[in-house]
Amino acid sequence: MSSDLAVQAHGLVKAFGTTRAVDGVDLEVPRGVVYGLLGPNGAGKTTTVRLLTTLLRPDGGTALVDGIDVVAQPGLVRSRIGLTGQYAAVEERLTANENLDLIGRLYHLPRKEVRARSKELLDRFDLDQAADRVVKGFSGGMRRRLDIAMSLIARPSVLFLDEPTTGLDPRSRLAMWELIEELGDDGTTVLLTTQYLDEADRLAERIVVIDTGKVIANGTADELKNDIGGDRLSVTIARAENSGRAIEALQPLCTGTVVVDADSDGRHLLASIRSGDRVVPRAIRALDDADVDVLDVEVRRPTLDDVFLQLTGKRADADEQTEEPS
């Protein structure tokens, strides 16, 4: 493994019965970056994290975390990582301080070090005023911040965050984003799984897109957007029955196939165009010539949602089967 890589996986496979939740995943996560693992529910993100954090044993492939083989030396891997799952793993009957002390003792850290580290983390995560309060009375955002603080108590080399903002209100979600950005700025290697496109776009320096257990794209957010080509033309017409004529009129102006947005009522059309082509007035004239009434025409830069739609044919928040059959 390269010394510049915090996580390296090649050909990871995990099956549950006849379902391959992870089907040949390759990853190379550099040190000191926030690395995004993006995909819909059931894509294989959580199973991949569980393989890398030794909670599951792979059926095939290899994985190294901080240079250590996850199958050959799982105990040593666990001593080097932090993990925050989809649900806050805090003990409600204990205070914030007692939760941190419990994790420190499980890591066999000296009591003096645990006390100093707990104070540092509670201050950093704005939980110092709640240090001696029982966690049962914490809000969802406070529990999630405490959960991440607990995963950092032993100063892990790699921190795995599995959909850390799921279930949070918008204010708590924004606060969590700022916290993850601080961790990245401090040089912590973070592997972040998410189904939220705006979250990956803001936080991750590089993004792996995964679907049906396979890696289908890899790059920076800008690289992924550029790969689908040009700007995006978005047209809303007055009546869905005119979509065929509208597609025929718009197609000569576009570099990609004009499609009907699957999430619309048949009146919203999308396509790729060349940047700087002054396509809006031409599109309006073409639709008018085709006797199609237009409600809206917009040209914009591609988003990660466009990327995912192009790659998979569905949006990233599409509901999928769970990764591990119950």
Automatic annotation (TrEMBL):
<feature type="domain" description="ABC transporter">
    <location>
        <begin position="7"/>
        <end position="237"/>
    </location>
</feature>
<comment type="similarity">
    <text>Belongs to the ABC transporter superfamily. Drug exporter-1 (DrugE1) (TC 3.A.1.105) family.</text>
</comment>
<keyword id="KW-1278">Translocase</keyword>
<dbReference type="InterPro" id="IPR003439">
    <property type="entry name" value="ABC_transporter-like_ATP-bd"/>
</dbReference>
<dbReference type="InterPro" id="IPR027417">
    <property type="entry name" value="P-loop_NTPase"/>
</dbReference>
<protein>
    <submittedName>
        <fullName>Multidrug ABC transporter ATP-binding protein</fullName>
    </submittedName>
</protein>
<dbReference type="InterPro" id="IPR017871">
    <property type="entry name" value="ABC_transporter-like_CS"/>
</dbReference>
<dbReference type="GO" id="GO:0005886">
    <property type="term" value="C:plasma membrane"/>
</dbReference>
<dbReference type="InterPro" id="IPR003593">
    <property type="entry name" value="AAA+_ATPase"/>
</dbReference>
<dbReference type="GO" id="GO:0016887">
    <property type="term" value="F:ATP hydrolysis activity"/>
</dbReference>
<keyword id="KW-0472">Membrane</keyword>
<dbReference type="GO" id="GO:1900753">
    <property type="term" value="P:doxorubicin transport"/>
</dbReference>
<keyword id="KW-0547">Nucleotide-binding</keyword>
<dbReference type="Pfam" id="PF00005">
    <property type="entry name" value="ABC_tran"/>
</dbReference>
<dbReference type="InterPro" id="IPR050763">
    <property type="entry name" value="ABC_transporter_ATP-binding"/>
</dbReference>
<dbReference type="GO" id="GO:0005524">
    <property type="term" value="F:ATP binding"/>
</dbReference>
<keyword id="KW-0046">Antibiotic resistance</keyword>
<keyword id="KW-0813">Transport</keyword>
<dbReference type="InterPro" id="IPR005894">
    <property type="entry name" value="DrrA"/>
</dbReference>
<dbReference type="InterPro" id="IPR025302">
    <property type="entry name" value="DrrA1/2-like_C"/>
</dbReference>
<dbReference type="Pfam" id="PF13732">
    <property type="entry name" value="DrrA1-3_C"/>
</dbReference>
<keyword id="KW-0067">ATP-binding</keyword>
<dbReference type="GO" id="GO:0046677">
    <property type="term" value="P:response to antibiotic"/>
</dbReference>
<dbReference type="GO" id="GO:0043215">
    <property type="term" value="P:daunorubicin transport"/>
</dbReference>
<keyword id="KW-1003">Cell membrane</keyword>
